[in-house]
Amino acid sequence: xxxxxxxxxxxxxxxxxxxxxxxxxxxxxxxxxxxxxxxxxxxxxxxxxxxxxxxxxxxxxxxxxxxxxxxxxxxxxxxxxxxxxxxxxxxxxxxxxxxxxxxxxxxxxxxxxxxxxxxxxxxxxxxxxxxxxxxxxxxxxxxxxxxxxxxxxxxxxxxxxxxxxxxxxxxxxxxxxxxxxxxxxxxxxxxxxxxxxxxxxxxxxxxxxxxxxxxxxxxxxxxxxxxxxxxxxxxxxxxxxxxxxxxxxxxxxxxxxxxxxxxxxxxxxxxxxxxxxxxxxxxxxxxxxxxxxxxxxxxxxxxxxxxxxxxxxxxxxxxxxxxxxxxxxxxxxxxxxxxxxxxxxxxxxxxxxxxxxxxxxxxxxxxxxxxxxxxxxxxxxxxxxxxxxxxxxxxxxxxxxxxxxxxxxxxxxxxxxxxxxxxxxxxxxxxxxxxxxxxxxxxxxxxxxxxxxxxxxxxxxxxxxxxxxxxxxxxxxxxxxxxxxxxxxxxxxxxxxxxxxxxxxxxxxxxxxxxxxxxxxxxxxxxxxxxxxxxxxxxxxxxxxxxxxxxxxxxxxxxxxxxxxxxxxxxxxxxxxxxxxxxxxxxxxxxxxxxxxxxxxxxxxxxxxxxxxxxxxxxxxxxxxxxxxxxxxxxxxxxxxxxxxxxxxxxxxxxxxxxxxxxxxxxxxxxxxxxxxxxxxxxxxxxxxxxxxxxxxxxxxxxxxxxxxxxxxxxxxxxxxxxxxxxxxxxxxxxxxxxxxxxxxxxxxxxxxxxxxxxxxxxxxxxxxxxxxxxxxxxxxxxxxxxxxxxxxxxxxxxxxxxxxxxxxxxxxxxxxxxxxxxxxxxxxxxxxxxxxxxxxxxxxxxxxxxxxxxxxxxxxxxxxxxxxxxxxxxxxxxxxxxxxxxxxxxxxxxxxxxxxxxxxxxxxxxxxxxxxxxxxxxxxxxxxxxxxxxxxxxxxxxxxxxxxxxxxxxxxxxxxxxxxxxxxxxxxxxxxxxxxxxxxxxxxxxxxxxxxxxxxxxxxxxxxxxxxxxxxxxxxxxxxxxxxxxxxxxxxxxxxxxxxxxxxxxxxxxxxxxxxxxxxxxxxxxxxxxxxxxxxxxxxxxxxxxxxxxxxxxxxxxxxxx
Amino acid sequence: xxxxxxxxxxxxxxxxxxxxxxxxxxxxxxxxxxxxxxxxxxxxxxxxxxxxxxxxxxxxxxxxxxxxxxxxxxxxxxxxxxxxxxxxxxxxxxxxxxxxxxxxxxxxxxxxxxxxxxxxxxxxxxxxxxxxxxxxxxxxxxxxxxxxxxxxxxxxxxxxxxxxxxxxxxxxxxxxxxxxxxxxxxxxxxxxxxxxxxxxxxxxxxxxxxxxxxxxxxxxxxxxxxxxxxxxxxxxxxxxxxxxxxxxxxxxxxxxxxxxxxxxxxxxxxxxxxxxxxxxxxxxxx
Lengths: 1107, 286
Known about the structure:
The structure holds two protein chains of two kinds. By secondary structure, chain A is an alpha+beta fold. Chain A is 42% helix and 16% strand. The longest helix of chain A has 29 residues, at 110-138. Chain B has one domain: Spore Coat Polysaccharide Biosynthesis Protein SpsA, Chain A.
C-alpha cells in the first residue's frame, strides 16, 4: 500500500500526524510519481471528506515542491490550453484529467507539475468550501429557506408588536439590537478555520471575549458601547428600505433580483442578513414576482420594512470581526421581528444564538466572503471557551468529518474567571488599530494547507499554540494577567510565526521594540488579534501604566507609520481604543412613540431628502418622523448639533486642497505630461482605433515557438570561459545595474499606491528586507568578488522617486558601499475612465478565473456596477476623482531607458566611467537576478545589442514569451497575442532581465555618447523611436479610500509602451539565454510568498546576497 | 370513554358570520354551514352541542340551525381573549366529561362512508384519551395552524403520541423541534380543526387564563402542549379533506367539494366543464 495513503488512513495518531516533507525528503522521483498515481485514485474513490482533502493537499505539495526539485531544470514542457481553460472555469476534475493525460503521453515536466499542483490545490479548497456550505444548509432551522421559492409560500409573519399602532398610525415601533464585537484572547494558531474544527475538533479551541468599544479621546467623554447596532421597523410603503449609516448608503428595494445583487452598492451585508434570516429566503433567488408580494405576506399588503445598520466608529481591519458581528446583529434583529426567537427583546437563548451564528456563516457565504467559526462570538456574553465538537449521529457532518461545522460555546462564569480578573484585564490591555487593513484570506488558506501537510515545525508550533490556550485559561482562573501577557507574547514570537511567518511584519515588530524600550518591564506582552498583525492588536501593560501607555502607543504608531508608509499599505491613521467586556452578548429593545428614533447619523442622511419633499408627498410615517425628530433635537443630548450638520449636508461646501499638497495639474506639469499625446489617445480610444482588443497582432500573424538553436541554455551555468570573460569586464568597471522601480506594483499592493520596491516583505538574515535592499545586497556580493564597484541605478517615477530617495538617505543606501543613483521618470500619463467596451472585453471575452459560485455572482454584479460607473462618468474622460497621485500613471518600462537618456544619469555615469559599456536591466521583482559574470561573458562574446533572459514556462508564467513572429525571433507581449491559446504553445517566458550594449543601444536611437549632452537631440531621438513602438491599452485597478478604512477598487485605463518590443527592431541584434527558474522568476503577488519561501527560492536569493 | 358532548367555537371576530352562510350539502339539501357542522358532530354520536358565540349572536345562529336548534346550547364569549378562552367559556357545559371540539369555520369531507368526527370519536373512546385530528401540512401554511410533534404509536399507520404542541410555529422552530420521523421534508403534523378533549384541558385553560390576568390572549395550543405532559394525548393523521370557509374563495371551494362528493356530482361537474369550455372559446375568440 502507498506510504502516503497509509499516513492518511491510519488510526494511529503518530502515523497520521507524520509530515509529508519527511517522507518526500528521501523519496526518488519515481517513488513520488508512483505515490501520486495512487493518491489520485484514492482521493477519487474515498467518500470521507478528510481523506479526500488531505490526499488533494498531498498531491498539491508533491507536485509543487518535491517533484520540480527532482526534474531536470532545462526540460521544456507545455501546459495544454484546454486544461488551463477548464481550470479557469473551475472544472478541476476535467483539468486534472487533461494534465495527467499529457503527463502520460509526453512525460512529466515542470510545466505540467505546476498545472497539476494548482489544480489539486484549488480542488482541495473547493471541496472544503462545498462541505462548509452543505453543513450550513443542513443546520436544522435553515433547510426551509432553500425550499421556499414563491412569495405566496413565505411562512414568516412580522410579530404583532412591531405593527403600526392601530390607534395612532404614526407610531411605528422600532426594534433595536446592539451587539458587542469579539476578541480572541488566545490566538490558537488560527484554529477557528472551519476545516480545522471539522477535522481536528480537539485542537480547535479559542478563548473569545465579547467587548464594547470606542475610540479613545483625551476628554474621556467617549465610553465603550456595543460597536454594532441594527434597527428594524415596519414602514408604510411596500419597499425594503436598507440603510447603512456609517457607509452612508441607502436603497429602497422593490425587486427580488436587487435583494440578491450584493455588489450593486455598499449594502451587501444588510442584503445577506435579509436573506439569511429568511425574510427573503435564499430559495427565492431568481423568482420573478415583485418584492411587495413577499412584504405583503410578511407584514401586510401596502407595507414594507426598513433595516438600518450602524457601526460606531470602528474602522475596517480591526481584527475584531466587526462585519461578522454586524451581520449576526442584523440577522438576530430580523429573526426576532419575524418570530423566530422566543422573546422579542432581551438576550437570546442558547439554541437561538447558535442559529444566528450558523446563519451568519450562510450570510457571509452569500456575500462571497467568510471568516472563522468564532467570529460571531459577540452574540454570546462575556468570556467563553469555544471549541470544536466531535460529530455525533444525527449531525449532518456525521461520518463525513470528525468534527462538526459549528463549535460549542461554554460561557465562563464568575467562578471560572472572577470579576476582579476581568477588571484587571481591562485595566492592563491597550487595544489599538495599527492602520493596516490587509486581506487575510491567503493566510487562512496557508494555515489549512500547513495543517493538512503536518509540516514538522508548523505542526509542533500548533501543539504549542494549543498548550498556550491552557496556560492562559489557567492564568485567568488564578487572576494572573501578567502571565497572560507573557503567554500571548511568546505565542506571537513562537508558534504563530512558526506556522505563518507572514503574520508579523516590520511595522508591528518596530512598534513592539519601541514599546519595550519605553516601558521595559511594565510592558507585559504583545497580543496578536485575528488573522495577521498590523491592524487590530493588543498590548498588555502593568495596570498603573495603562493611561500613559495609551498615549505613548498612539505616538509610537503614528511615528512608525509615518516612517514606513511609503512601502507599507496603510488604510488609515492608527487609533487607540477604550474597551470593556460585554457581559450580555447581543440584546434587543423595543422603542415606542417618542423613543422610536433611529441613530443620529440616519437623520443626517434621511432628513435633507425629506425636507426637499412637499409635505403632501410624504407618507404619514415620514411626517410623524420629522415631527418626532425635530422634537427630539431640542431634548435629546445625542442629537446635539444636528441642525448644523443638516445645514452642512443641505449646502455642502466644495472640497479644498490641503496646504502644501500639489494639485493634479501641478504634478502633471512637473512630470513631463504630454497633453498632445494624451488627447490623441483619448480620441483614438473613443473612436475604437485603440483598445484592449486592438492591442493584438492581426489574426493572420504567423507565430511559432522557437527551436533549441535559438536559445542558449544557461540553466546549469555557461562554463568557466564566459565566467572569466565576464569577471574581467566587471573588474574593469564596464558594467552597471539598472533596477526598474518606477512602477506602481499594483498587483503587489492591490493598487494602494505605495512603493512596492520599499515593501519590507520578508525576513532575511534576521531582518525584514525590502526589494531594493535585496538588490543592493546582490550587487555588494558581486562587487566584493570582482573587487570593482558596480554602479547601481534605480529607476523611479513620480510615484516612487521621493519615497525611494528618502529611504535610501535615511538607511544610508542600506550600507551599500558602491555608487547608487536614482533615475527619475520623465514621462507620465493621466489615467482615463475606461471604455465599457474594454471592460466587457476584459471580463467577458478574455479567459477569466471563475470564482466560487456565490463569489462569482457577487463579482458579476460588481462588474455591472462598474460598467455603469464608467458610463456615468463618461468613457475615456480624464480620471480625476481620487488623490492626484492615484490619477497619474507611469507609461510603461520602455520609457525607463529614454528616462536615463533624458535625465542625464547615463551621461553622468559615462562621464565618470568612460569604460562603462554594458547595462544589466531587471525588474524590481526579479529577486534572483544578479550580475552573473558568465551570462555577462556570454553577452560580450555574442556581440549582440541585447541579451534577454528567458525561463521555461509554468502555469502562472503568463504575459507573453519568446517566439518567431512572421519568422523574426523576438519577445512578444501577452497583450499582443491574437489568441490566448498561442501563449500556451510557447516554451519560454520573458524574465525582463536584459543585458544591453550601451553604444549599440544609443545607435538605435540614432545617438552617440557625445549627443547625450544635448537635451534637444535626445528628446527628438526618443520621440522618433517611441513612435515606432506599439502603444498598449491596459486596465489597472486603482484604490480609492474613504470613510474609516473603507476602500473601493476601480478599473481605469492607461497606456504603456513595453521594453520587450525593442526586440522587434531589425537594426539591433539579440541573444536569448534560458536561465534557471530561481534566477528568472518574479514575485508579483504577496500570495506567492509562502511558496517562494518553501520551495528554496528564498534560500537561493539569500545565498546570492552579501548583507 | 363515552363522548356525548361537543363544543363548536364561532366567536372569532372574523369568524362570526361564517356559520350563517348557506350551502348545498352533499345530500343536495340547502343548509347553513352551522347545520353541516352540527350534523358532522351528530353523526359521531354526540347528543348535546354547545356553540360559543359573541354576545348577541345566539338568536341568528339558532335560526339557521333549523331542526337542530333544540340540541344547541349557546354560550357567549364576553371578552376577546383568544381561542383558548373561547373553549374555556364552555366549561360549565362540559363539566367533567370528555367532549368533541369543532371550529365554526371549517367543513370536512371524509374519504369514506364514516364521518371525520365519527372516526375521531371512535378512536378516542377506544383509547380513552384525548385525540386531535392532524394532517400533514406544508411549511408555508404553518402561520395558520397549531402544530404537533409526536412519536408514531407502534403498530399503527396514522396514530401518534403527542409530545409537543406549538401554536403557529415559524418554519425555523418547526425544523428544530417539530420534525416527525417519516414525514416528507418541509411537512408537519398540523391541527385539522377537530379534537376530542378531556376535561383536564378546561383545568389547564383556567390556570393559563388566570395567569394572564385577562391581559393577553390564550391559545388552545398552549393548553394542549401542557395536556401532552399530563396525560396520554394522541394525534390521528387524517387523509380527508378540510375546507376553511373563512379564506378567500373558501366558501366556494367548500361548496364545490361538497357538491362533487355528493349526489349532484355529475350535474356540477358538467356545469364546471361547460364553464371551462365557454371560457376557452372566449379566450381564443371562436
